[in-house]
């Protein structure tokens, strides 16, 4: 039986891949509580793409496959301590087996950017008990990493697909292949020994929408990953 554990979940409008860096600015009370709990614990939480078709107690619901984020740095943005800046690094991907709903239902007309919204949430939290968790949690199981490398030939074929897609998207503006080589250099994607991380990065600069990247994250074998990237980059 696969081992599971319970972790905090942070739904975001992005897909985090393993070993990618993700800086975040934290200002909502429920996510400040999440970060505080992580800093007391092992510094890890789950990042999931928002599931636009579902919600949990009025809050954004997560897709069922995400990536563990490990906090490497946490500091106050302002002296008042109302905002935090954290730096994180993606680790293993995981699959949600069971969602644990937050203790607070999203208030009507809640504005996460306003002082009034923060006060409202804080008052509700005090009434129900500050030990209650305002954020989503989930019981998750880890997904084994793809530990094989892609062949150089297959990597070159993916790069050519990416170039064709970018060139077509740029029309009527003309983009030449040489200019795109500079883009690859900027993202450190010029290599003779490509790994799965290179495939993730190429996908990220080839997608228009984070929802296009979710199937890439969910791939569990190299063959499946390559197939899904080919579909993403198809012109």
> Given the helix and strand composition, which structural class is it?
alpha+beta
- Total of domains: 2
Low-confidence stretches: none
Task: Using the coordinates above, name the CATH class of the largest domain.
Answer: Mainly Beta
What is the N-to-C order of secondary-structure elements (H for helix, E for strand)? EEHEEEEHEHHHHH
Q: Helical segment tally?
A: 7
Q: What CATH architecture of the largest domain do you see?
A: Roll
Give the amount of beta strand, in percent.
Answer: 25-35%
In total, the number of strands is 7
**N-to-C terminal Cα separation, in Å?**
42 Å
For the residues shown, what is the average pLDDT?
A: 94
* Backbone CA Rg: 20 Å
Dominant shape: elongated
Instruction: Let me know the largest β-sheet.
Output: 5 strands, mixed, barrel
Major beta sheet, strand line-up = 1-3-5-6-7
At the fourth level of CATH, the homologous superfamily of the largest domain is: LON domain-like
CATH fold naming of the largest domain: Archaeosine Trna-guanine Transglycosylase, Chain: A, domain 4
Task: Please bin the fraction of helical residues.
Answer: 25-40%
């Amino acid at each position: 039986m696969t081992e599971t554990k319970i972790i905090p979940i942070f739904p975001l409008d992005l897909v985090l891949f393993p070993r990618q860096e993700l800086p975040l600015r934290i200002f909502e009370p429920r996510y400040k509580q999440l970060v505080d709990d992580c800093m007391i614990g092992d510094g890890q939480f789950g990042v999931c793409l928002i599931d636009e078709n579902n919600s949990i107690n009025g809050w954004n619901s997560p897709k069922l496959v995400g990536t563990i984020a490990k906090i490497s740095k946490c500091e106050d943005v302002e002296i008042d301590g109302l905002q935090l800046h954290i730096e994180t690094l993606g680790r293993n991907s995981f699959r949600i087996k069971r969602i644990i709903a937050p203790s607070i239902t999203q208030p009507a007309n809640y504005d996460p950017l306003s002082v009034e919204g923060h006060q409202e949430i804080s008052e509700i939290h005090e009434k129900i008990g500050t030990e209650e968790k305002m954020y989503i949690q989930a019981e998750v199981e880890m997904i084994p990493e793809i530990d094989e490398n892609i062949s150089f030939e297959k990597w070159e074929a993916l790069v050519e697909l990416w170039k064709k897609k970018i060139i077509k998207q740029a029309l009527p503006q003309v983009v030449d292949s040489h200019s795109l080589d500079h883009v690859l250099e900027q993202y450190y994607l010029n290599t003779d020994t490509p790994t799965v991380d290179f495939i993730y990065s190429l996908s990220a600069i080839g997608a228009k929408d984070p929802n296009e990247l979710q199937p890439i994250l969910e791939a569990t074998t190299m063959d499946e990953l390559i197939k899904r990237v080919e579909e993403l980059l198809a012109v």
